[in-house]
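lol ok so funny story. i was supposed to be doing the assay writeup but got distracted and ended up predicting the structure for this chain instead. priorities right. anyway since i did it might as well share w the group, maybe its usefull for someone
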Amino acid sequence: MHEHTATLRHFNRSWAQRVGVLDESFLGTGMPAGASRLLFEIGPDGATVRDLRARLDLDSGYLTRLLGRLGDARLVTVEPDPDDRRRRLARLTAEGRRAWDRLEDRSEELARSLVEPLSERQRARLSDALATADRLVRAATVHLRAVPPESAEAVAATGHYFAELDRRFPGGFDPGDARYAGSGSTEGSVFVVATSDGRPVACGGVVRVDERTGEIKRMWVADDWRGAGLGTRMLRHLEAEAARLGYRRVVLDTNATLVEAVAMYVRAGYAHVERYNDNPYAQAWFAKEL
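and the output, tada:
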């Protein structure tokens, strides 16, 4: 572990120095990196304070102070959202838009200067390496939270899940009036959503089958997160949640079309069992002792 953490810490120091994170005026903007990043995230289209907090994973008090600093500089205004006055909307002023354009141009110029000394082959290697690093770091830092099944996060995640099943199943998929985990009750149940940069990227739930057994349902991972180990992490998390709820055994079903899911369950120690439910879309059933 020390070897890996040492490599990551060395890269952090090297990268922070070379892209100007340590400078009092990031890229000559007159602001430190944190305020500059917030300005960039608000962008020409604006953003709600809630979305900014979720996207940047910032403490509410610190975000308020940063917005105040941008407001004092007459770069940003924060007002009630006309579409929902319970929310606050941050928008760039005319001067803020000019500052955003300068930040975008200087960021692009810095990136170009960093890769310019490299050969085309080296640039390709760097691009591939950074893309892999970005995905793995984001996978390691996603937030897994239990949420109410009727919450916006749960509804969005299960919507993506249903859409994928409808796309992949030969005859399509109709969720009917199914709740988040196929149960009319949430007693003895939990639903978990993984978010990154403020958007749901994975989900899954556990529902009660009997006193000893919980069923894992609605396991989904976003397409652009496949291969980063998030599915396995979510599965382990749901098993831990099932144990916390008092279950000593978990079961699940799946469709043969979802070959990646079947392979993951087998790797995780699940054994094939006989059909235990009447799910018309299920073609394989698994169980595992916790």
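Confidence is low (pLDDT under 50) at residues 180-184. Residues 2-117 form a domain with the Arc Repressor Mutant, subunit A fold (CATH 1.10.10.10).
back to the writeup now i swear
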